Amino acid sequence: MDLAELEIFRTxxxxxxxxxxxxxxxxxxxxxxxxxxxxxxxxxxxxxERDSKKMTLTPEGHRLLGYAEQLxxxxxxxxxxxxxxxxxxxxxxxxxxxxxxxLLPKPLGRFHAAWPDVELKVATGTTQALVDGVLNHSxxxxxxxxxxxxxxxxxxxxxxxxxxxxxxxxTEELVLVLPASHPKVRRPQDVQLRFLAAFARGxxxxxxxxxxxxxxxxxxxxxxxxxxxxxxxxxxxYASAGSAVAxxxxxxxxxxxxxxxxxxxxxxPVHTFLIRRSGFTTSAYDAFVRELRHA
Length: 295
Fold this sequence. Notes:
Elements (H helix, E strand, L loop, with lengths): L2 H13 L2 H8 L3 H15 L4 E3 L4 E3 L1 H23 L8 E6 L1 H6 L2 H10 L4 E6 L2 H9 L5 E6 L17 E16 L15 E4 L5 H10 L4 H6 L1 E4 L3 H9 L4 E5 H4 L8 E16 L5 H12 L1
Parallel strand pairs: 3-4, 3-5, 7-8, 7-9
Antiparallel strand pairs: 1-2, 5-10, 6-9, 6-10
């Protein structure tokens, strides 16, 4: 195996297509096909199930992908360490949807203006998905919400995953959003709607909302249904229509000034951190941290 071979394999795995992988890699299709076959032959296993529409990873392919992500990330880290005075290469940043909208735009803009040679890749997801991405080397760092209720200085990042470091960024106020027509809510028992609009499991904010609502007792625990939404826009639309309650940080709600027919209820503060694998550092990452701290 060599790094170029692993990069081709990873790209085919992501694109699930030789044609799309060749386009992404700027290689001819025959070269990509040959390199994948050579890799399979050298390892003595089949890495992809092939059909007329797509290529999907076999169990052996999934195992190799984990190693490929680690090896390629380590190689990139090594390359950047040789040019420590000038950030270069790729920086893969993960973020919760809310932080991508409220916290990151200015730091990312300043970073790109200062270091245009760095290729920034930004992905969004739930806190759990982002933690997994950092730990499996598909992300270099990520902005996540810690579920702990302790003061910021007492939060242990290892609670999110062994082998992680974290830098505190800010504390968000989570609010429950309800239709304006809903009777006044002061406590969980006052919530009459039985649908919660939220992201998929693994979202810290969703868990905070479920924990708060379940203080009302077993009745709401049994009756509460979560409607998984793809975006905060969809959640707000659902809440405005009177169909559900939603959970989001107040800073994000402030961006939607056109949404006025809503009632908000404070739920709890949640701390936001930038996480990375312990010991990971590159000049690009260090420059990104400086921009976040400046913000």
